Amino acid sequence: MEFHVNTSDLDKVTEALLKYRGEIPKALVAAANRGAASVRTLLVREGRRVYNLDAASLRKTMPIKRANFNDGHYTAYVTAGQRGASLMRYEPDPADVADNTGVPNTERAPREGVSVQVLRQGARKIVRGAFVARFKSGHLAVVRRTGEPRRKSKASGMRTYPVAKLYGPASRAVLNNPRVREAVIPLGQEKIRKALHYQLEGRLAKRSGLK
Questions:
Q1: Are residue 128 and residue 55 in the same domain, yes or no?
Q2: Among 1, 93, 117, 195, which is least packed, fewest CB within 10 Å?
Q3: Which of 131, 64, 62 minimizes the C-alpha distance to 102?
């Protein structure tokens, strides 16, 4: 068997290489953004092995700061959000209010608090003084009173209290978790390497007319 290289293809590649230099920064930006998305997927997967949280909620706590070619910014980051997911995402008990007044379920008195399962393994944690409240929008949240009672409501005749929503661990805890880091770092580096190879190879082929 005899094989030969088409010299016209070689000419195209040679010409493409001369023009290729301007494509490298674009490839770096695209690879960084693609790699960051892949790394976040790994973080969510491994984070869920440790924390009792659904993928969508965990992903929301890890926004990506994208690389930008126009700014000359070639690095993308998976960032740690300011706060974690709502404690309602951690299987609270009680999980609802007793009625539409916002009074906590009688299953657990307010002074005892609400129990949540933050970690996949281990005991549930009781958040003292917390209770489940329903807001005017209809959504539920684990909250804690933060101040003195307000004036009585004309509609219900009851006093209301200012409350603060409670959240689970910030995503920084996931990013810094030794078990998560041990699993994600080597895989993440490989994902980024493949993303860069894919971008460089694809752009070269496009420039040379071979793709």
A1: no
A2: 1
A3: 131
Range of the domain at 125: 86-167
- Candidates 141, 148, 136, 134; CA nearest to 102 is 134
- Same domain? 116 vs 176: no
**Given its phi and psi angles, is residue 3 left (phi above 0), alpha (psi -120 to 50 degrees) or beta?**
beta
Give the CA diameter of the chain: 95
Give the count of domains, the chain: 2
Q: Identify the pLDDT of residue 100.
A: 45
H-type alpha helices, the chain? 7-20, 23-50, 55-60, 171-176, 178-208
Q: In this structure, are 147 and 183 located in the same domain? A: no
DSSP designation for 99: S
Residue 1 lies in a domain: no
